TrEMBL record, chain A:
Membrane topology: Multi-pass membrane protein
Residue span, Cytochrome c assembly protein domain: 101-302
Subcellular location, record wording: Membrane
The name this protein goes by in its record: C-type cytochrome biogenesis protein CcsB
């Protein structure tokens, strides 16, 4: 296949994924609409597992909702496949072939894929079927925004990005972002459920609070070491190779560090009396906010970040060199050494 | 929370303020307060908060020009910001105070836990609580085996599952525990955080980072001492004596310009070919310096971070003497087209000093305005396909007489006059390589001889970077242990009942946060099944 064909395939993959995710959302809508008026039996929910249908013992409702739920997961799986093909196509379309996370469009494409993949990987083991509609709805919205606002045609990476540390660094950042996002979603659900007194409907059907809290914790416990590796190990190694110092307090780095510290605080909160549960969940949301602010906000608003990929060219960054003739002179001249200044 | 599922962290709650406030108890109280989990949590959040301003306000050591601009735009706020160290957040007193407090708290927190852990390592699994059935994970069954038989088998079954097992003399229960590595991992993680900080501090105190623009070619070289750097940022305890005595020249520089595709106009595959010596007397070695592939000499790393053009300009003065000749480094003002700005000074020209200032276009083109008329000149491409340098001339006092050091990249125009044409417009010359323009008023002539290239080389020495890296890797390993090892206790009790059968109770206690009740139940079931399967087996053995 030619590069152009791969690129077309990738675009088709995104479109197909979008359509299939949408169908999955419809299936979930059917499922939850049928369950809307069925009261939740306390005893079952207390078990902690995400039981959606077991307790809906109404003879009419159970088979239908179960079917719809199964169909939903199946469709998410098919959508994920198309999503994966879209990613593969991006990588294969570039010359030379490369990892599909060279700009914001691709990073978002990969990040949402990780969210879906993590959901699929854990849904059976951790009984997360109830999370399906939220995950699919979220991913669908983000993908839509990605295609509408962030789309960029395939282009080769700039020199500084051609490093296997980049692959390692970004892949861990993407995976951790996916895990933290899922953890953020479950933490949000925790807070909503904690305030809700309803006996019917979606919130009532979620697992009990301790179980929700535990699921959030496990998402974060998975994401945190991956983030640690991506931001504090592979990132600095790559920065050292490309920029000559492993930590530059660049806005992107600062916010990655902030995210790390907030999640460390989250883990502490869970071990501190008086901070468990609600406060921990709030910290998890703060963490996700810093994470996404770093990804979106810094790219668009920061003028100094060397990581910016927001401007089409991306890597053209201005830097100040304290240029002098012989030693002492300290006139400062603004120079663009851009063309091969790295920029994630 | 039962006594049994207390974790070390639970002991570190902030105590209440003592009632009798003598100095000792106050000090103790302060220390306990500082090393409590809650304080650690608050300090972590403070650290996150304190890091924010530095990402919003320009920072002196990252982008000092942005700082200068900011100062110009906010003349009232700037002094206040200065007083608050907001232009240098990460070195400021208040930022340091937070992380130093955090480190003190950390040490105060892990040292006592180390002792607790050391004791726990040697300790036996705690005795079975009286009412096993009250624990969240518990089950029981009856059998007609003797309690001793059951307990002996329980020891084996549980040991096979890597529990540490204890059966006290005469006790009716087996106690078991595993997952000690969680606390170990947690301690290792926190300790390693300190190591990382030490590594980072070493680098920033004893290291340095400097840059130099070096022309390509054997005629130009760099030797590693302070005077050779264009910019130099040492750590506060940096000692120039540690600088490695290497020298290098850039013999050649390759770059590939893309002429088609979506990134047409960009350059890639930068390679600076270096000849270097690690020492004055060492043999010459070669290295291809590329982006992402620094050259390491001793503890020093050498990076390629930029490139540009240096037009070779010769100035003859009014008396016909060559008063200035050689390449002049022009600094790119556009990273894509390499349109560059530069200055050439001829302070010894007679009868008057001459200063040239202007723009270099690697591939000259004239743009067109809306009406199709030729307008602003620009560079179409970064590669030097049709190079042209466009200069204006300043005469009089260009300010290099008084011996004060001034930048070679800036022309001091305060006391100089711009050369003009008869119609009053500034005199401008556009030169292609090989061309010469004679200056009016018998001032001399300017020749564009040819083109050379330069590279911006960054050189840094960061001692402790491997300490920091190693610390971080160890921290990660510790973290994995701390997050994924599940410490748990297990008890099997067997008691003869009045009806002659034996009641076997099995209970399990998970001590980690976020553990999964499913897998806990599965483990319990597995152990019970192990007890019963072995019961079958031993019966069969008895029969045969
Ligand atoms: C630089 C500062 C610190 C960082 C980055 C940090 C990070 C972490 C992380 C990521 C965990 C999670 C591991 C787990 O859940 O098992 C943790 C746990 C813990 N930290 Fe820290 N910590 C710091 C300072 C402190 C301090 C000052 C204390 C003492 C008060 C402390 C006490 C603890 C304890 C007791 C746990 C175990 C919690 C549990 O049992 O789940 N940490 N820390």
């Amino acid at each position: 296949m030619t590069d152009a064909q791969w690129e077309t395939l990738s675009n088709q993959g995104v479109a197909a994924a979008g359509v299939v995710y949408f169908l999955a959302l419809l299936a979930y809508a059917v499922q939850w609409a049928a369950l809307r008026d069925v009261p939740v039996r306390q005893s079952v929910a207390a078990g902690g597992g995400g039981t959606i249908v077991d307790d809906a013992d109404d003879q009419d409702v159970a088979p239908r909702t179960e079917m719809a739920g199964r169909l939903g997961v199946l469709l998410v799986g098919i959508g994920a496949l198309a999503h994966f093909i879209a990613l593969l196509g991006r990588g294969m379309a570039a010359d030379p072939n490369r990892v599909p996370w060279g700009n914001m469009y691709e990073f978002t494409l990969s990040g949402t894929f990780v969210v879906v993949a993590l959901f699929l990987a854990t849904t059976n083991r951790w009984r997360l079927a109830w999370l399906g509609p939220i995950v699919v709805g979220f991913v669908l919205c983000v993908l839509l925004a990605d295609v509408l606002w962030l789309y960029e045609p395939v282009a080769p990476l700039t020199e500084a990005l051609e490093s296997y540390w980049l692959v390692i660094h970004v892949v861990s950042a993407v995976i951790a972002t996916g895990a933290f996002t899922l953890g953020g979603i479950t933490s949000l659900l925790y807070l909503l459920k904690a305030r809700s007194t309803k006996e019917k409907g979606y919130l009532a059907r979620l697992p009990e609070l301790p179980a929700l809290d535990r699921i959030s914790y496990r998402m974060h416990a998975f994401g945190f070491p991956v983030w640690t590796f991506g931001v504090l190990i592979s990132g600095p190694i790559w920065a050292h190779q490309a920029w000559s110092s492993y930590w530059n307090w660049d806005p992107k780095e600062v916010w990655a560090f902030i995210t790390w510290v907030v999640y460390a605080a989250y883990l502490h909160a869970r071990a501190t009396a008086g901070w468990r549960g609600r406060n921990a969940a709030i910290l998890a949301l703060v963490g996700v906010a810093t994470l996404w602010f770093n990804f979106i906000g810094i790219n668009f608003f920061s003028t100094t970040s060397r990581h910016s990929y927001a401007d089409g060219v991306g890597e053209e960054r201005s830097v100040v060199l304290r240029l002098a003739g012989p030693v002492e002179a300290t006139e400062e001249v603004r120079v663009v050494v851009g063309a091969h200044r790295p920029g994630t | 929370m039962t006594q049994l599922d207390r974790r070390p962290s639970d002991d570190r709650q902030a105590p209440a303020l003592p009632a009798d406030l003598d100095a000792r108890s106050l000090a103790r109280w302060t220390w306990r307060q500082l090393t409590s989990m809650r304080t650690a949590l608050v300090l972590l959040l403070l650290l996150a908060l304190a890091a924010i301003p530095g990402s919003v306000i320009p920072q002196e050591d990252i982008d000092s020009l942005a700082v200068a601009q900011w100062r110009d735009n906010h003349p009232r706020l700037a002094p206040i910001w200065d007083r608050l160290d907001l232009f240098a957040v990460y070195g400021s007193v208040w930022f340091s105070a937070i992380y130093i407090l955090l480190m003190v708290s950390l040490v105060g927190c892990i040292v006592p836990r180390l002792f607790v852990y050391a004791r726990a390592i040697g300790a036996r699994p705690p005795r079975a609580p009286r009412h096993l059935s009250r624990l969240p994970d518990s089950t029981s069954y009856t059998t007609d085996e003797a309690p001793d038989v059951v307990l002996a088998r329980a020891e084996k079954v549980v040991r096979r599952r890597h529990f540490r097992v204890e059966r006290a003399e005469g006790a009716d229960a087996v106690a078991a525990e595993r997952g000690y590595l969680r606390e170990a991992g947690n301690l290792v993680f926190h300790f390693a955080v300190i190591v990382v900080l030490v590594g980072v501090a070493t680098g920033s105190l004893f290291g340095y980072k400097g840059g130099v623009i070096l022309l390509n070619g054997d005629d130009y070289g760099f030797s590693n001492n302070l005077t050779q750097y264009d910019d130099f940022a040492p750590g506060s305890l940096f000692d120039p004596a540690v600088m490695e005595p290497f020298t290098f020249t850039i013999t050649d520089f390759d770059v590939e310009w893309m002429t088609e595709g979506r990134r047409a106009g960009q350059a890639r595959k930068f390679v600076a070919h270096l000849d270097y010596k690690t020492d004055k007397d060492a043999p010459t070695q070669q290295y291809d310096l590329k982006v992402n592939h620094p050259l390491s000499i001793g503890d020093t790393d050498i990076f390629l971070i930029g490139h540009g053009y240096a037009p070779v300009i010769t100035i003859r003065d009014g008396e016909g003497n060559v008063t200035k000749s050689g390449p002049a480094v022009f600094l790119p003002t556009n990273g894509q087209t390499f349109e560059s700005f530069g200055v050439i000074k001829a302070p010894f020209a007679e009868p008057t000093q001459i200063g040239l200032e202007g723009t270099f276009y690697p591939t000259f083109q004239l743009g067109r305005d809306a009406d199709g008329n030729l307008s602003m000149p620009s560079s179409a491409f970064g590669n030097a396909i049709d190079p042209l340098v466009s200069l204006q001339v300043w005469t009089g006092d260009i300010g290099v007489d008084d011996g004060s050091a001034s930048s070679v990249y800036v022309l001091d125009k305060a006391r100089a006059t711009r050369l003009t044409k008869a119609d009053g417009q500034p005199f401008r010359m556009d030169l292609r390589p090989g061309e010469t323009v004679t200056l009016p008023d018998d001032l001399g002539s300017v020749t564009f001889e040819g083109l050379e290239r330069w590279n911006k080389i960054q050189i840094s020495r960061t001692p402790g970077k491997l300490v920091a890296l190693g610390g971080m890797v160890v921290a990660l390993l510790g973290l994995l242990g701390s997050l994924f090892v599940r410490p748990r206790r297990l008890w099997v009790r067997a008691r003869r009942q009045d009806d002659g059968t034996t009641l076997v109770e099995v209970a399990r206690l998970d001590r980690s946060s976020g553990s999964d009740p499913e897998s806990g139940r599965a483990e319990l079931a597995g152990i019970v099944a192990g007890l019963q399967i072995n019961q079958q087996r031993s019966k069969e053995e008895d029969r045969s």
